[in-house]
Amino acid sequence: MNNLFNYTLNNLETHLVENGFKTFNARQVFDWIYKKGGTNFDQMSNLSKPLRAYLNKSFLIEPLTVVSHQISSDVTEKFLFRLSDGQVIETVLMKHNYGNSICVTSQIGCNMGCSFCASGLYKKTRDLTRGEMVQQIVTVKRLIKKRISHVVVMGIGEPFENYDHTMAFIDIINSPYGLEIGARHITVSTSGIVPRIYDFAKDPKQVNLAISLHAPNNALRTKIMTINKVYPIEKLLKAVHYYIKETNRRVTFEYILLAGVNDDLKYADELSNLLRGINCYVNLIRYNPVDEFNYKGTPNDQAKAFHDRLMKRGITATLRHEKGGDIDAACGQLRSKDIKGNG
Ligand code: SAH
Ligand code: SF4
Q1: pLDDT tens digits, residue range 42-58?
Q2: Are 257 and 204 in contact (CB under 8 A)?
Q3: pLDDT value, residue 75
Q4: Nearest ligand to the C-alpha of residue 256?
Q5: For residue 339, is it within any domain?
């Protein structure tokens, strides 16, 4: 049996035609599952009996198994899901005034080894399939019975290490016959896998790109992000320039504020010099504590001063309040483990 959520509309059209059905049947199936929230092929009364029988014997449309569901005081929700091979992942739902946003996981564990991130504490055991990424959204949508308007690929894992599945996932959720999540409402965050930034620049979809920069120079970035040894800042920014030239889109740089590490105002000055002239903005992220690490978040006054210094020097920056910290659902607190610390 195949997981139906692994199929882009194109894939499904080809598959159904090869098996004696019509191209438009694929659109009917997409419409049924994604738009109408159908959970069972037998309910699809507008399809012929032979097609329903074929779908039943060929495809699974199961949601993920919910192991736990926590709701934080700020109404962020965290789901622990079990996959068909027994492994677990986390997915986060954030309710904003502009809509419901889901933070999707792309790998089980992460090998990038950033020194501050809980997701990297567990080495990658495998990539998620496109279907498992789609299922995170479908399962949450079925549970909350509300439309999902925004998606960020910022959960566990490095999506650009799982590039093909991530791109097919975007195709599926963006399809007008599927979940219809606008490309401009989808953001992929990477720690900076340079060759994939070039590939991403060539993709015709207007999806947002966020880059985890976290330091304005190589010495400091290498200390906290080992990927910088392979793809140092010059190479990263060259790829970013290319991406902006090709897509004419603005890039987001994420910068976690770590007390006493990268939050001195001299780093704000260095960062503004580095980014001057690039069509970008900086998303300053408050550090969410992780038990296993000694890092501390920058105090509010200093974070605000860092933000203001960037703005004064002509770099647009935002500093938001994190959501979900009390249930470990904030950036960098997600992990592929059943019970925290029980490992
Ligand atoms: N692997 C990708 C996407 C997932 S991480 C990447 O690194 O970009 C999403 C964001 O959360 C990244 O910017 C990451 O650096 C940040 N992050 C990691 N640990 C964090 C923590 N403890 N507190 C706040 N942000 C964190
Ligand atoms: Fe992986 Fe991103 Fe965490 Fe780094 S910050 S360990 S790349 S999930």
Answers
A1: 988 889 999 999 999 99
A2: no
A3: 80
A4: 1
A5: no
Query: What is the best residue among 90, 115, 116, 119 to mutate for testing ligand 2's pocket, by most ligand atoms within 8 Å of CB?
Result: 119
What's the 241 CA to ligand 1 centre distance in angstroms?
22
**Does residue 143 sit in the same domain as residue 31?**
no
Residue 66 pairs with which residues in a beta bridge?
Answer: 81
Task: Examine the fold and report which residue of 60, 83, 107 is the final residue of a domain before the chain moves on.
Answer: 60
Q: Judge if the beta carbon of residue 112 lies within 6 A of ligand 2.
A: yes
90 pocket-lining for ligand 2 (C-beta < 6 Å): no
Q: Is 187 in the pocket of ligand 1 (CB under 6 A)?
A: no
The answer on 186 and 142 residing in a single domain is: yes
Is the distance from the beta carbon of residue 298 to the nearest atom of ligand 1 less than 6 Å?
Answer: no
Asked if the model's pLDDT at residue 326 lies above 80, the reply is no
Dist. CA 224–CA 169, nearest whole Å:
30
Helix (H) or strand (E) holding 173: helix 163-174
* Residues classed as catalytic: 90, 331
133 in the same domain as 48: no
**Which residues are CB-contacts of 9 (< 8 A; sequence separation ≥ 6)?**
26, 27, 30, 171, 172, 175, 177, 178
pLDDT at 5 over 80: yes
State the average pLDDT over residues 78-85.
95
Region 286-310: mean pLDDT is 94
343 found inside a domain: no
Looking at the structure, tell me whether residues 199 and 217 fall in a common domain: yes
Q: Among 154, 249, 138, 155, which Cα is nearest to 201's?
A: 249
For residue 73, name the pLDDT band (cuts at 50, 70, 90).
Answer: confident
Helix, strand, or coil (residue 262): coil
What is the number of structural domains in the chain?
Answer: 2
pTM: 0.94
| 109/141 same-domain check | yes
Question: Mean pLDDT over all residues of the chain?
Answer: 93
172 in the same domain as 128: yes
